[in-house]
Write a structure and sequence with these properties.
The structure is a homotrimer of 496-residue chains. With 496 residues, chain A is mainly alpha-helical. Chain A has 21 helices and eleven strands.
């Protein structure tokens, strides 16, 4: 008899394990605060999708006390001093939306409670202290200012996004609208959310008054929140599941890191790593903490190389977790207008180059070195990344890979320099006007040379390759053809 | 003892449930008509793929009588008066291919039976009455005529698809061939299938005579069938599984709704909704009827917003099912050449604008209002869509979203108007000839302005965004650059 | 009691089956050679990802003796005379890396063993004899020479990939670097790997000496290996799982067969076949040998049509396995510069056309027939492919499909001819210089006509369609617009 009992229990155990893996979302609500329960009672009717999504989250199933009780490497919370009044309730609606109301311009009275519309990184910091701190100094966190407080980039934004009018054959441009900014550049970079006052909205059975927010909805990485903080954790951990699985899958990064300017996703899809991911995707474990290389996954997703805590099966830490997504990067591929060592500060609008412009390189490629990390820091970061690569590749494989990348950065930068020379000659010969370097046709070709084609090749090189991409699709074909087109335009304009 | 028994049975039950979820396709054929059994006996040898695909379908497992016995919300059939001779057999080869033979020019004698090659919406209507009726009045159903019976669009088709010849430096164009039309425009819009007679085909062990069909194979949404009906249910429910799962997944819509002209799929892939779908895709339920928001799925696919019957977990209907895919749409994003209220009739070739052309807007944006739905109807449809959004988003979130979209429609239409002015100035100055507004180089830039770039931004705006897409990939970058290119072309041509 | 026992055992059995399906990778190492065990002991520490990946492979679980004992149709090895000293060990590190060391310039002493860095097709041939032999005569195997030993294509490569410099308004080009070739053309075609000597690499706790390889890492299909063999089995069966599943999924082919020049993947994604694959992907069986149409899969992946051993459920062979990926192809879609019958030899650099150039067609489309397969061979191959199609489609469906494709090939070739005529007129009028037919702006438009737009439409036609792709995305729109642009460029240059 005992055998059957044990066997049956074993099967039950294994089986329940299998079921849980794919999520048994039956709401077995335990340790829910009475405030959160009140939210749920009403919102299960008004917005069932939100409630169900939250029910699928770890937040709905774990109290901070339980989360803190795990061995350090397995923890998903990093503040050892979570306020005691929060420790024994699961992380529900009220726990998050009632944080720091005194700082929140978007806080309002809602059925007897003071809550905030937007939960900001500063609120998440209550439990996820280290992550919020790392993030707050990253380039992502400064993504709004890095674009909009930099007069050069701001001019590029305005040139692209402003509505144009044609009068007497002349094209003029208006300032871009908030709405268009919100769904173009600031869709990824983040908007500056403002509270305009309160407004009344009509529900299916009555009305309520809620804060009237400008430049919202938005989940850009550098969003300026109504509490003054920067960023949106929901960029990568979507509401209300706040899933580590989603954040670790490349589809998340694919929301913004796209061709033609930042084609990380496009390159990944065509790489060997991508092939293995897509082929074996459903067999891997995306929720394990720490994340075990070779066991939980067999080829990297974006998060593996850039920020997750990676260990080997025997517990050796291959890479520490970081929510500063540049922490393992030494060179900045992204040509603005040439590749360069990573900036020291996440706030790049403070950079001044030798031309006096807030750019990391001059027009001809001279580095604004004072604002960029030095050789020692570069070497340190490179060795962190190489440690990840070497979990699956030999040292000589890895070294050769990065040597090849160095050549690519040099050559694509030379191709940008060639385009720059053609543009300068057009300016010198009064064919175009350098007042705005982004609005005329030869200038636009120059922008495409570094922003689209140069960058595409650089990303392809760094990420072990998308050969057809580097060749014919936004690669060397375009880089060479674009230069030839610039020359043709110059000759045509000279002959008018 | 009893505990073990119950536990074991419970496990068995749960486990078998899990197995069934992933489809046990063992052919347990029951209630098959003798005619269908005869088809299968032969076709299991000649075309095993077809037979196996059908075996995976609900059609092979359910009789109409069983289908009708379900509670109304759970039904997949809508005709309460299915012919009694069909009610007790599963829906097999003969049941579908022998419908209404008298109307079918493609009917023929095949081993003693009179059958049709093509099963049309009019045949599917036998059981799926409401769906076929809704579909038959939709724009999709008229997709062939909407393109080919509209002289303006037909000219665009011919200009693109005709083989060009070069003689003495001049380019002339032939009429497009049926074959090229079939695999370009009419691949999605549908061909007009004609029966040319009979032909003899060689099988591996003999010959048979079958109808000789012209413009076939094709599964375009507005296909003109040999029985005179319009449409192809197999556009979205592929033969012979006729799967609701496939139709509800976005890959189906991705067959046609693609960049650069209708980039719904491209936008979805890069949106937050798409991210969540791709990350959690394998955990959702795509076959449940009705479809429960928050439980069966946690982010929308195309079908969720546009046509499925959506309920909340407590059974409240969030949106009724409709096979008129425009039923929840108030504004037509698709700029032809400007956005406009949805047309009243699915047949858009009947529209006449103030210029006398069969277009919903004039050249400068004036609406052909008489043929378009009014404000009340627009508001009604918008409220249906908002009801879907509000299952997961607050009312103020949703309102802000659509306000933003309104600004985008206005601005992209202004960018089209700017391009129109440049083209008109080129015509006025005899740089190009307005006889065919699609064939010269400035004209082609004008087409790209609304058909590619304007539309891309509009879709991105409506679908909660693909920011990089709206910015650099067929977005504002192109919209602005294209205008500048038009200006350059004009100046170059003026100076010749 | 017995009932419970049986039931419990049944459940256990079923359940373990389910678990195994998703891979229980617990290393139950059996029959590992002592040499391989020694490799693992060390590499589990230095490169755990490699070891874990291999543990997930069939190689780690099967001895050649076991593999050979299967019925012939189920076998994955084709050499009946595998060396006896290998037959009783699983296929581990040492078994593969110690093959034929005498031929390997990359062999070296490593902890007491003589091993090779690169395992070549000639090594895999030890067990996979037929596959290696078939591959070695295919176009893929000759992909390096077919590009680099053909002076015309080599000139195209150099024109695209060489770094350009601008001096006095003139553009000059350097020879491409090995690094850029490695990550563009040769990323897919394969590099020529050379051994430069030995080098010392720094590990985390010491140094080792390893061969210093040039043009490596690379997994291109025509890689020239240090043992003189051609190809890399890891192009499609990635190290170290060597998975048949991955090779059978389309993501593998998607590493290289991409828009704009060879858009098989792009077309597949938008086709009905692709829709069904993506919708049902996780339910199919990708490891069964032989592969059963209708049961293991319900729509084709690349491998189904092009090289896998396909049978019907009753065991009838629908198509034989071939690792010559052109074995089922009669016409070569790929326009160089026009479509043509498949070449007789995988080595296409031996072709000479009537102009004396190593191209399968002349400038105006005349075939180099002597080097191309004849009508009888074309018919034979076509019937093999049609046999695959007819597993799921009727004969008349299939015939109509290929008739349509023939028209498309003819028409797109006519569109290339039109572009050729314009380019020749530009040469005749000294607007451009025909010395290098790839470097000037009208010439580049000519290249795009056949290499990008013509090819895209041809692939779309052959693969049952991606209608929007053939129309607006690298299709007829571009084909027609490009011609118009060529005409404009000619007129502009004539008027300078």
């Amino acid at each position: 008899m005992k055998t059957y009992l044990l066997l049956t229990l074993l099967i039950t155990f294994l089986f329940l394990g299998a079921v849980n893996k794919y999520g048994d979302n039956t709401p077995k609500l335990q340790n829910v605060s009475k405030e959160t329960q009140e939210c749920i009672d009403c919102h299960a009717y008004y917005s069932p999708g939100i409630v169900n999504d939250w029910l699928s989250s770890l937040h709905s199933k774990t109290t901070p006390l339980e989360a803190l009780s795990k061995p350090k490497l397995q923890r998903r919370v990093s503040n050892e001093n979570i306020p005691s009044e929060l420790q024994n309730y699961v992380v529900g609606c009220f726990e998050c939306h009632s944080r720091n109301v005194e700082n929140h311009k978007d806080s309002f009275e809602h059925n007897g409670y003071k809550i905030n519309v937007i939960v900001s990184p500063n609120d998440c910091k209550t439990c996820h202290l280290e992550e919020a701190n790392q993030y707050s100094e990253s380039k992502k966190s400064y993504a709004y200012d890095n674009l909009m407080a930099n007069p050069v980039y701001h001019l590029l934004v305005n040139t692209i996004d402003g509505v144009k009018e044609v009068k007497d054959g002349k094209i003029t441009s208006r300032e871009p609208s908030d709405e268009t900014l919100m769904e173009t550049c600031l869709g990824c970079h983040g908007t500056k959310i403002e509270v305009k006052g309160m407004r009344t909205v009509q529900l299916k059975d009555g009305t309520i008054d809620v804060p009237d927010l400008k430049n919202w909805p938005n989940q850009g990485v550098g969003r300026i929140n109504p509490d003054g903080s920067r960023g949106a954790c929901t960029s990568c951990h979507p509401r209300h599941s706040f899933s580590i699985e989603i954040a670790r899958k490349p589809y998340t990064c694919a929301q913004c890191h796209l061709e033609p300017d930042v084609p990380a996703w496009d390159v990944y899809k065509e790489s060997k790593h991508g092939n293995i991911f897509f082929s074996k995707e459903t067999e891997w474990n995306y929720t394990n903490v720490p994340w075990v290389v070779g066991k939980d996954f067999k080829a990297p997703t974006c998060a593996v190389c850039h920020n997750s805590l990676i260990v080997s099966e025997d517990g050796e830490v291959k890479a520490e977790r970081s929510h500063d997504f540049g922490a393992r990067l030494w060179v900045r591929l992204f040509g603005l207008t040439y590749s360069h060592p990573q900036p020291k500060s996440g706030n790049t609008s403070i950079i001044k180059n030798a031309d006096g412009l807030p750019l990391p390189t001059t027009f001809t490629g001279k580095l604004a070195s004072e604002f960029l990390i030095d050789k020692a820091e570069m070497d340190k970061r490179k060795s962190v990344m190489m440690n990840v690569c070497e979990s699956c590749h030999s040292t000589s494989w890895t070294e050769n890979h990065f040597k090849k990348m160095d050549v690519t950065l040099k050559e694509t930068d030379e191709m940008t320099l060639a385009a720059t020379k053609l543009m300068v000659s057009a300016w010198d010969n009064k064919l175009e006007d350098n007042k705005n370097p982004f609005d005329e046709i030869i200038e636009k070709h120059w922008v495409k040379q570094w922003l689209f084609y140069g960058n595409s090749i650089k990303y392809s090189s760094a990420m072990t390759g998308a050969p057809d991409y580097s060749s014919f699709k936004l690669g060397w074909w375009e880089l060479s053809e674009n230069l030839q087109e610039m020359k043709e335009l110059i000759e045509a304009k000279e002959n008018r």
